[in-house]
Each structure stands twice: as structure tokens, then as C-alpha cells.
Amino acid sequence: MMLLGWDALRSSDWSQLSHAYGPATDTPGHLERLFEDDHAGWAKTIDHLYWSVTHQSSVTTATPPAALVVAGLLGDQRLDQPITADGLEPKPVSAHLLDFLAIVAEGTEPDRTEGEVWDAYCGPPIDELDMVWRSKPFTEGYEAVIKCREVCPALVDPVLQRLTADDLHTRLAATSTAALLGLVPSVTNRRAEIIKLLEAIAHSADIHHERAHALVERLARSTR
């Protein structure tokens, strides 16, 4: 059983991990802000998660433990408060955190087999541009993807619990994140359950936009 929340924060050796801009030694400090009542700090942490821990839809070796920390906080009612900050859509912190977990799920490159992921990150470069792109040790990108796949099963239940959140933004974010998690190879045993839940939302939601959103997600994921 994987540790979540504060336990995941304290049990990870961040000095051995990296994000898009170097060693992840600053990441624990950012994550600690989520345990405090600090709106400005929350915004800075979300920015760090979006642009450093993940970057342009790619994951890093700091992503898996950060995802476990975030998953453990999804039920914290303090984080249901909305924040407004430069570059961030005004919505609850929990919705932003769910969006981060959606990036994590998508960053596992679910359409590729593990062998294809290895070839993409560790195989021979296909051209000079590919060589430039691989500026970090080739195996680091592969490790990040595989480790994210390993932690995704632990993210499912915390995300599914937010499908019935009071706030619409949070419910929509949970719907998208659950659908993306259902595509991750390590979550195949939960895929039918996730699709069934999304189908139920599509039929029972009171808001037309939410019904349409859930239906699109359900159809998109069930056909892949």
C-alpha cells in the first residue's frame, strides 16, 4: 500500500529526484504549503506542480511522490476554497490539484507499451534534434513515466471520491482525471468501474454541461 499525503511527503528522498528545472529539493517546501492556510502559497504550489514537477504535459522523477502527496489532500475541505492568481483560472484548489493529477495520468503515455516507452527515451536518437531533446540522462524520462504508472492505482480512489463534490469545477476536474486514469496500463482492473461511474454521471447530472462533459469523457475512454 502506497503512502499518501504527509506520509508520502516525509518518506520521499527528494534529494535524489529532479523536476524540469533541476534537483527537486525545493518541491517539499512547495508541497508543505498545501498543509497550511495560505492562499498565496497555494497558488505558488500549483504553479510549481504545473510547470516544474510536470512540464508541458511531461512528467519528471519528482512527479510520482508529488502525485501521492496531492492525492492524500483531495479530501481536505480547506482546499475546497477558490483561489484567484495570475495565470490560474478562479476555482477551488482541489480542482487545480485534480488537474495536476490529470497531467500525471496523461504523462504516463498510456498509448505506448513499456517497450515503446523505453525505445522513445532510451533507444537510438532518430536525428540531431532528437539528440538535443535528450539533454538529460536517457533513462530519467523512462523512469519518470514508469514510476508514474506505478503510483496511478493509488490515485484512483481519492479522485473517484471527488466525483460527487459540491463544487462543479471540482466535479468536472474529477471526471476528466478519472477518465484519464482509466487509460493508464496499471489501472486496467478499474477501467470498467470508472466508465460505469462516468456513464452514471452522464445520465444523472443536473447541469447540462456536466452531463455532456461526462458523456464525452465516457465515450472517449471506452473506445480506446
Give the tally of β-strands: 6
What overall form do the CA principal axes indicate? globular
Helix content: 55-70%
Tally of distinct domains: 1
Largest β-sheet summary = 2 strands, antiparallel
- The radius of gyration over CA amounts to 17 Å
Termini separation: 28 Å
Number of helices: 11
Strand order of the largest sheet: 1-2
What string, H for helix and E for strand, traces the elements in order?
Answer: HEEHHEEHEEHHHHHHH
Q: Look at the structure and give the mean pLDDT.
A: 89
Structural class: mainly alpha
Beta content: 5-15%
Q: Runs with pLDDT <50, length 5+?
A: none
Condensed summary:
With about 220 residues, the chain is mainly alpha-helical.
Which descriptors apply to this entry?
224 residues; mainly alpha; two-stranded antiparallel ribbon; 11 helices; 6 strands
